[in-house]
Amino acid sequence: MNSISETAIEADPKLPIIQITRDFTATPEQLFRAHTDPELFARWVGPDALATRIVHWDARTGGSWRYVAAQDGTEYGFHGCFHEVRPDRIVQTFTFDGEPDGVALETLSFEDLGDGRTRLRARSLVDSLEGRDAWLRSGMEVGVDQGYAKLDRMLADGAV
Amino acid sequence: MNSISETAIEADPKLPIIQITRDFTATPEQLFRAHTDPELFARWVGPDALATRIVHWDARTGGSWRYVAAQDGTEYGFHGCFHEVRPDRIVQTFTFDGEPDGVALETLSFEDLGDGRTRLRARSLVDSLEGRDAWLRSGMEVGVDQGYAKLDRMLADGAV
């Protein structure tokens, strides 16, 4: 089987882009729901140690979102707007409150691989190679890996 | 006087970024209004030959926008969401309906130069150098130049 068993996080050699690729035992519709339904999203996103609380969520083209991730009383806020929400593709902006002028443009796509498998591609575009590399050095892969592992378990349990 | 008398449109040498710089005889507050008030915006944006009609406009952090530019019965639609709207900075997404998967992340800033002058910087980030260069070849500078000339006249007339 040619599927990607682990999460691949790749930096473009020349552009300030991070590309994440991850296969799931899920339909495209399930991955779309996992990224747009606020209750489902809050259950899987981010590292195991943080609990996510949705503050605002309007997953429609032209809508916006905000959530807070908390650990031991410390809160980390994130927000953005939904440029486009359609079944095979979500384009949104992303800012961490701790770096308020930093904005990423994120494009998610869901590719049906057949046999109940779907490939998620999540591309983040920022405005400098330095900003991208700082993000790669931040330990973001822990949250990405642990989040997708939680989503795997939710899919296996029939929660999505 | 060190001000920039014409519009400067520059491509970053390595990144898929177009940077527009233009000075106006205006306060930062006036340039902010010209970019956020839909009636004012529709009067100046784009080339002289096109008439702009606002379809939807909510210039707040987390809001969205859509307008149509028309010439001789042909309409060109544009839309996006407002990631952040604050007095010195607007961050928004931008898509031309004719190329629906192309998305630019635009950052506008208004720098007070004193003496009633303000420098506008408009930076557009896209996801490939090819996409950026296609945009530069599209004749976009005509619309940019003519639009800012209209805004100059509105400012001189006290319309903003």
Description:
2 copies of one chain form a homodimer. Chain A is built from 4 helices and 8 strands; from the N terminus they run E-E-H-H-E-E-E-E-E-E-H-H. In chain A, strands 1-2-8-7-6-5-4-3 form an 8-stranded antiparallel sheet. The model of chain A has no long low-confidence stretch (mean pLDDT 94). In chain A, strand 7 and strand 8 form a beta hairpin. In chain A, helix 1 packs across helix 2. At the A-B interface, strand 5 and strand 6 of A face strand 5 and strand 6 of B.
Report the biggest beta sheet of chain A as strand number plus sense, adding barrel if it closes. 8 strands, antiparallel
Number of strands of chain A: 8
Q: Based on CA inertia axes, which overall geometry of chain A fits?
A: globular
The percent range for helix content of chain A is 25-40%
User: Which two chains share the most extensive interface?
Assistant: A-B, 29 and 29 residues
What is the number of helices of chain A?
Answer: 4
CATH architecture of chain A: 2-Layer Sandwich
CATH topology of chain A: Alpha-D-Glucose-1,6-Bisphosphate, Chain A, domain 4
Cα end-to-end separation of chain A: 24 Å
Poorly predicted runs of 5 or more residues of chain A: none
Q: Into which percentage range does the β-strand content of chain A fall?
A: 35-45%
What would you call the quaternary organization?
homodimer
CATH superfamily label of chain A: START domain
Radius of gyration of chain A: 15 Å
Strand/helix succession of chain A: EEHHEEEEEEHH
Structural class of chain A: alpha+beta
